[in-house]
Design a protein that fits this description.
This protein is of the alpha+beta class and 252 residues long. The protein has three helices and 19 strands. Helices cover 19% and strands 47% of the residues. The chain has a 17-stranded mixed sheet that branches. The relative contact order is 0.10.
Length: 252
């Protein structure tokens, strides 16, 4: 009897865990990322299946779902923030990427299918979450790092790692790409090989991050206070931009 009760308890826990995992997966698909910056031209489009291209104009604060495709114009740079771990994705002009969120054996897998253009991303280390960038020439897989991926018009893919390590693989093989190195693959059958990035390439890659890396920007906030005598005084406070975004996004 004790063994039977134990088995039933284990089964019940498994069912509850499965239900919780399913709800979590549904939530992840319903709310994958947040549009929090549109720079320069500000023309980014969101194509949500089965919606045809060119899709609808994106606005700061828009929520992006599983399988949404976002494209930037030739004069637009955009920044997205993943809603679960705060990782940042920066899209440069003339870029197109499809966001996919799934669950593989309890691990949240974010997949960015970069069809064209260039992206920079900083992935926060978070247990149970991993990110992949799929390109025509291969896949870049990471768990916590900063890197740039570029897809040229002919499908040639270049990955430059700024921090951490990126694992790049395709039909031709698999290679680790540590900080300061790059890998270039002409197609999915080209054997990938890591090599040092030139100072110019590293500088360009750091430029692709825009103002998302390096020193923290600040935002000035005007606070009006009334003293004991009823007089109103104005106080100007400089608050880190991350703190402001956290408040706007409902983060602690």
């Amino acid at each position: 009897m004790t063994t039977l009760r134990a088995s039933v308890a284990v089964l019940a826990l498994a069912v509850c865990a499965g239900a919780f995992g399913a709800k979590r997966a549904d939530a992840q698909q319903a709310d994958v990322a947040l549009v929090y910056r549109l720079l320069q031209g500000g023309d980014m489009r969101v194509i949500r299946p089965p919606q045809p291209e060119p899709g609808t104009q994106a606005h700061v604060g828009d929520r992006l779902r599983n399988l949404d495709k976002v494209t930037t114009s030739g004069s637009t740079r955009a920044a997205l923030r993943f809603t679960d771990d705060g990782s940042i994705l920066r899209l440069n002009p003339n870029s197109s990427v499809v966001l996919t969120s799934g669950n593989e054996n309890g691990v949240v897998v974010r997949t960015l299918r970069l069809e064209a253009g260039e992206l920079w991303t900083r992935v926060n280390r978070h247990q149970g979450i991993t990110l992949r960038v799929n390109t025509p020439a291969g896949v870049a897989a990471v768990k916590g790092t900063e890197f740039v991926v570029r897809v040229d018009h002919d499908g040639t893919t270049t990955v430059i790692t700024l921090e951490g390590v990126v694992e790049f693989f395709n039909q031709g093989g698999r290679v680790d790409v540590p900080a300061g190195t790059k890998v270039t693959a002409a197609d999915s059958s080209s054997a990938p090989r890591a090599q040092p990035a030139t100072p110019q390439e590293l500088q360009q890659a750091q430029g692709a991050r825009g103002d998302e890396g390096g020193s923290v920007q600040g935002t000035w906030i005007e606070v009006r206070l009334r003293d004991a005598n009823g007089q109103t005084r104005t106080l100007m406070l400089q608050v880190p931009a991350d703190a402001v975004r956290n408040v706007l996004e409902g983060r602690p």
